[in-house]
Amino acid sequence: MRHQNSSVPAKIVNRFRSFGYLAWNEVEKSYRRLFSGQHQLTSTTSADRYPELFAEAANILNAGHQPCRILSYGCSTGEECFSLKRYMPNSTIIGLDINRNNLKKARAANTSQDILFLESNAENLTRHGPYDAIFALSVLCRWEDTKFVDNCEKIYPFEKFGSTVNQLATQLKVGGVLVVYNSNFRVEDTDDFRCFEIVPTPTVMDSGFVKKFDRQNFASNDRHTNCIYRKISS
Ligand SMILES: C[S@@+](CC[C@H](N)C(=O)[O-])C[C@H]1O[C@@H](n2cnc3c(N)ncnc32)[C@H](O)[C@@H]1O
């Protein structure tokens, strides 16, 4: 996982901003597509964005009481980490993102010594692991680029998802949980799924609105609701 910072350099920002927000948005996305490590192109996030999912995860981890180590992979501007800290007050949280501008905003908003924001690369991922829980929410996808295609291979191939799940799974403690929401693929289709069991999440109705594809990158219409997976072996 050798990522480079995918925030757009200032000289490109200044040149294109005057074209208006929508045009600028497209320029930003095109720039990010150049980075092989890049998953989702946009940085949309908000506080307490997935309340049911956070509550289920906190319940599973019993983390209101137990100290635990959490990774937010694709933390954007930090709201996800701040929310997780409220659900799991005894946690230490590492937020990784590929976009340095997001990290700058996250650090500026951070008031907790238990939350650390770092660039997403293999070194930072492993240096702070292993983790009790890894959240990859609205990250392992290309949305809306994949919305109208029957095969997503050219936009976001299964191998990219599978290899990232593998890297994340390696950094998860046995007994820990991988939480994946709004992804283009199902964790069940990865080779690593053999090391996991599905944790039922009765209050979470689906695994996100992002369109799902199979291992061959073909669109799948099967209803999919699983989003929390416990690691049962390495
Ligand atoms: C739509 S935001 C999701 C933010 C947050 N997880 C949420 O659900 O609210 C997607 C984030 O993933 C980040 N991202 C994309 N590829 C990444 C990678 N390889 N490593 C870490 N973050 C990545 C983007 O920079 C962006 O901040």
Brief overview:
With 234 residues, this protein is α/β, with parallel strands linked by helices. It has helices at 10-16, 21-33, 51-61, 79-87, 100-109, 122-127, 158-170; strands at 68-73, 91-97, 115-119, 131-137, 172-181, 196-198, 212-213, 219-220, 228-231. The chain has one domain (45-231): Vaccinia Virus protein VP39 (Rossmann fold, 3-Layer(aba) Sandwich).
Description:
- The protein has 234 residues and is α/β, with parallel strands linked by helices.
- It has a single domain (45-231), classed as Vaccinia Virus protein VP39 (Rossmann fold, 3-Layer(aba) Sandwich), CATH 3.40.50.
- It has helices at residues 10-16, 21-33, 51-61, 79-87, 100-109, 122-127, 158-170, and strands at residues 68-73, 91-97, 115-119, 131-137, 172-181, 196-198, 212-213, 219-220, 228-231.
- A 7-stranded mixed β-sheet has the order 3-2-1-4-5-9-6.
- The longest helix is centred in the N-terminal third of the chain and has 13 residues, at 21-33.
- The protein is globular.
- The relative contact order is 0.14.
- The model has no long low-confidence stretch (mean pLDDT 93).
- Bound molecules: S-adenosylmethionine (SAM).
- S-adenosylmethionine (SAM) binds next to strand 2.
- S-adenosylmethionine binds next to strand 2.
